[in-house]
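Just scan this pair:

***
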Amino acid sequence: MKSIFLKRGKEESLKRFHPWVFSGAIHHMSEEPEEGEKVMVYTSDNEYIATGHFQIGSIMVRVLTFTDEPIDQSFYERKLAIASDVRHSIGVIGGNNNTYRLVHGEGDNLPGLVIDIYGETAVMQAHSVGMHLDRFLIAQALKEVMGDELQNIFYKSETTLPFKADLGQENGFLLGGNADDVAMENGLKFHVDWLRGQKTGFFVDQRENRSLLERYSKDRKVLNMFCYTGGFSFYAMRGGATLVHSVDSSQKAIDLTQANVALNFPNDDRHQAYAEDAFRFLDQMQTPYDLIILDPPAFAKHKDALRNALKGYTRLNKKAFEKIQPGGILFTFSCSQAVNKDQFRAAVFTAAAMAGRNVRILHQLHQPADHPINIYHPEGEYLKGLVLYVE
């Protein structure tokens, strides 16, 4: 295994168990590793400190372990077993829910790896070349840990791997292949688009926030913007909304939304869906909504886009504040990791002031417990949300 040696003093973050080694911290290497190769990291005094995957870019090592140990199938089995134990202990597995995140990257000490479970199917996603190269090893370990509970593993990393790595990756099954595409969340059913859907096919991270929305939906007229596959929409319907309108710019998303609503509420005329640009829809809308959900895709995927992203959040929320009925409730979110919660809140507050509305915070929302944040890696906190009462 090749070795990387740090500049003096650059080991301090690793001593605090932060799982990244930045390019600027590296003094020299024993020899140049291949991208995705496992490397050992040493301090300037030649003391071992970590082992991880090497990657070209500003984050050059994603740490897998701070113990000198082999990274083999048994290593992944131990990590996956711990992740599974966490999910069982927090109660997200079983009952009327078979949908949850099993591995959340750095939050489960497996940086670059995401695994979501939909019933008997795991959807695995690599965000680093190292995890891509280890995908078969991880799949074997996953099957060993989950046993007969797991019948299919779908690998979905075409759009998440560094494009410069030129891996020619294609999505496909690593195990099984006859997956039922209907999963269940809190007793509600939905189709999962393994192949073409965003993320792993469904936004698992909004489960608890959808449940909260259900409590506020009774007798309200609900607008679900950026609806994707309609998660918030069918929770609102179960909560007793008088009408629910779902909007997304993608016709494929609208088709899935319609299918998901029909799964849970067949022939229910309370729901309508529109393939339309969000800002255009808000400009032209005529229905007096008193509950609006704004859950857009990430406006900033990196810090260089931060300024424009904050302008986008302000503009979007201003439109909603202008349109929502008095006494209305706004659920508004940001999933941009580059936007912290204070910046997002400031953008929403600015929007409220520009719209001239009196607004109260009812809830401050974040990612659920099966998307844990490593205490040594605060960058893992990405989902921010506010529930607001608008006079």
In short: Residues 214 and 239 are 5 Å apart (CA to CA). The chain has a mean pLDDT of 93. The domain at 73-186 is CATH 3.30.750.80 (Transcription Regulator spoIIAA).
